[in-house]
Design goal:
By secondary structure, this protein is an alpha+beta fold. The protein has a domain at 1-222. Helices cover 36% and strands 24% of the residues. It contains ten helices and 13 strands. The protein has helices at 3-11, 43-49, 221-237, 249-261, 265-278, 286-305, 309-320, 334-350, 354-370, 377-393; strands at residues 57-59, 71-74, 83-90, 96-105, 108-118, 122-128, 137-143, 150-158, 161-170, 172-176, 190-198, 201-210, 213-216. The strands form three sheets. Strands 1, 2, 3, 4 and 5 form a five-stranded antiparallel sheet that branches. Helix 4 (249-261) runs antiparallel to helix 5 (265-278), helix 5 (265-278) packs antiparallel against helix 6 and helix 8 packs antiparallel against helix 9. The chain is elongated, with a radius of gyration of 23 Å. The relative contact order is 0.09.
Length: 398
């Protein structure tokens, strides 16, 4: 929807989140890790690991997780007996790291996995059932660099080794088997992903592992985005340690977007109205224009949620009719146009105008077929997939 999403798509795809105090500052995540050879942990386990350390590396404590020793115990194969996960760093290059895993077979320890290289310095290990089969997958968080946050890779045990399932980029993560709108949980841990935009602002999504990748888990949005809304409410009211945040279209966009995803449409509309009063169109700078357009879409979604379909069409139509060259810097990013056209279809469906809705969804597919946005391909694909699903649900043509 916004320029920041363009940056995320370029990074790859959308973890370390604290559950209290409205989250600690993540700035500690963006510097190169420093070797800590005085790793805490059981010396006996370190002695076991020593013969398996690859040449040019040494044991090192995890770089972010509290009290993560150089050699940790995790039951990664689900047999009830913990394996040893050993974090390592290059002796000559502070950005090179990795880890290896040891399993005891009989009386002998054997290496069952190893990864080393650039951007492989381990911050933390955690486990969660991502598949819903009662077994926990291993999530490893690696240092990437700059403000990109961390690369989190999910691994599953596939005898006799660990195999990567999927990965995401994030600054913070919350893992939980989240309930849907009726309170039902599916037995899978969803990922609440926070990606740093600027200052105290984050792009947030909830992902679920399906068919070899992480995909948006929209059925649990109402549950999780109430938390997100609370975070942005604190910025808007100026309370807490984030009180220095400057009110801007960006703040109002993220707050209204959180309300919409929490199904709190009237609150979203109130935020949009406040933004329009505080930032009249004629006073908005070019740099802020994209967020005003994003607020327009959020307002349209909120109106659809309240049943005001005609009004939603009226404000979405100008955006859906725009044409722009992807990546050329126009105010309306290409995926924003696709999103507006998609919600035009939703507004039409709300009025039982299936033919009009079908035309809107087909418009998304046609525009996407003619133009591929290299800077925001992930968002483009998202609206294409949602439009295809919407077309499948429409009544067949007579």
């Amino acid at each position: 929807m916004s320029p920041v999403l363009t940056r995320i798509a370029a990074m790859a795809a959308c973890l370390i989140l604290s559950g209290c105090s409205l989250f600690p500052s993540p700035e500690t995540l963006v510097t190169a890790p420093q070797a800590n050879v005085q790793a805490s942990g059981n010396r006996d386990r370190q002695q076991i690991a020593q013969p398996f350390i690859p040449p040019g590396y040494r044991l090192i404590a995890g770089q972010h997780q509290d009290n993560l020793p150089a050699v940790s115990q995790f039951d990664v194969d689900g047999d009830g007996v913990p394996e040893l996960l050993c974090t390592i760093a290059s002796k000559t290059n502070g950005y090179n790291g990795g880890f290896f895993a040891l399993k005891k077979i009989g009386a002998q320890w054997k290496k069952m996995f190893e990864l080393t290289g650039e951007a492989a310095s381990v911050y933390s290990f955690t486990q969660a059932d991502l598949i819903g089969d009662g077994k926990k997958e291993l999530l490893v968080s690696y240092f990437v660099g700059g403000s990109a946050g961390e690369s989190v890779v999910a691994y599953s045990w596939q005898n006799p080794t660990l195999r990567p399932l999927a990965s995401v980029m994030a600054n913070r993560l919350e893992l939980e088997d989240m309930p849907d709108k009726v309170g039902k949980r599916d037995g899978k841990s969803e990922l609440g992903i926070w990606i740093k935009d600027t200052g105290t602002f984050y792009i947030v999504d909830v992902l679920r592992y399906e068919n070899g990748r992480f995909v948006p888990a929209e059925d649990v949005y109402p549950y999780y985005f109430k938390k997100v809304a609370s975070y942005y409410e604190s910025l808007s009211s100026g309370n807490g340690q984030e009180s220095k945040s400057v009110k801007s279209p960006l703040l109002y966009y993220y707050l209204a977007d959180a309300y919409v995803k929490a199904d709190e449409y009237q609150k979203a509309l109130a935020v949009c109205d406040r933004a329009r009063r505080e930032f009249p169109a004629k006073e908005v700078s070019p740099a802020q224009q994209s967020y005003i357009e994003n607020l327009t879409i959020v307002r349209g979604i909120a109106l659809i949620g309240t049943g005001s379909f005609k009004e939603a069409e009226k404000i979405l139509q100008p955006l859906a009719d725009k044409r722009t060259t992807p990546g050329a810097g126009q105010p309306a990013a290409f995926p924003t146009i696709l999103e507006a056209a998609y919600y035009m279809g939703k507004a039409a469906q709300g009025q039982h105008e299936d033919a009009k809705a079908r035309a809107c969804y087909n418009q998304v597919l046609l525009m996407a077929k003619k133009t591929i946005d290299p800077y925001d391909k992930a968002q483009q694909e998202r609206w294409v997939e949602k439009s295809r699903q919407a077309l499948q649900k429409l009544s067949p043509l007579k």
